[in-house]
Amino acid sequence: MTALEKPVTRTAYQQSVADYWNAEKDPVNLRLGDVDGLYHHHYGLGDYDPAVLETPADRRDEAIIAEMHRLETAQADVLLDHLGPIKPEDRLLDAGCGRGGTSVMAHLRFGCQVDGISISEQQVGFANAHVRQRGIDGSVRYHLKNMLDTGFGSGTFQGIWNNESTMYVDLNELFAEHARQLKPGGRYVTITGCYNDVTGGRSRAVSQIDQHYICNIHARGDYFKAMAANGFVPINVVDLTAATIPYWELREKSSVATGVEKPFLTAYREGSFHYLLIAADRV
């Protein structure tokens, strides 16, 4: 880094998040991605096939892993469905891209250029190596950047998304940067877990999730306040809570369970935590 370059992480907290993901080799992310080469860092949507639980014991876990991966890919498809019409000449940004699965899916669907960003060197290196293997590294590129200050030009992107990555940053700072980078009329989409501020503050289960992932889950209402303050108009809000519970029920039965499954299921079932999709246009 030269004297003129700014560090990617700006605070001790951001560095702790980067350190966490640089060291992370969780089978729940790697084994699922090995199914077809789409490596996700998010959760799943839809009912699972109960037949996987009746698979003979020597193949049952493999079947559960494949089914969990199908549900995670379905979640990314739902997000991409809400980006609106995207042309091959457009450019998209995957903010907090993880190992890049949603970026690859976006390029394969729309044929456009996609940039992914992460503060984890390990994730960026992994994702770039993967798109080189796929032969799409001319169209999908991953960068070691901070989503609050990316260095991309203003009005660069037709679409931006955060797939379960907003809980690591201040929402006002995030939406200010996204508004700067989006073209007028561009689309922003997030799928995120948020706590139910109607019922009060963070529940015990939500606090356990925060602790597990070193994150700071936001209140549901904070998303809409921060969007309105930065020129975003929501056009679709979808409560996905009921649709994600089966994924967690299946994951609890898998060999890649981490122990965080119980807090997720408790929080969703008691209503203290919501799984939300928000699509908004930049005005």
TrEMBL record:
InterPro entries: Erg6_SMT_methyltransf, GPPMT_Stmyces, Methyltransf_11, SAM-dependent_MTases_sf. Keywords: Methyltransferase, Transferase. Residues 93-189 form the Methyltransferase type domain. GO terms for molecular function: methyltransferase activity. NCBIfam families: GPPMT_Stmyces. GO terms for biological process: methylation. This is Methyltransferase. It comes from the Bacteria.
